[in-house]
Amino acid sequence: GENVEQHPSTLSVQEGDSAVIKCTYSDSASNYFPWYKQELGKRPQLIIDIRSNVGEKKDQRIAVTLNKTAKHFSLHITETQPEDSAVYFCAARGYSGAGSYQLTFGKGTKLSVIP
Amino acid sequence: GAGVSQSPSNKVTEKGKDVELRCDPISGHTALYWYRQSLGQGLEFLIYFQGNSAPDKSGLPSDRFSAERTGGSVSTLTIQRTQQEDSAVYLCASARGLSTYEQYFGPGTRLTVT
Question: Would you list which residues of chain B are within 8 Å, Cβ to Cβ, of chain A?
Answer without folding.
Answer: 4, 33, 40-45, 48, 50, 54, 56-59, 91, 101-108
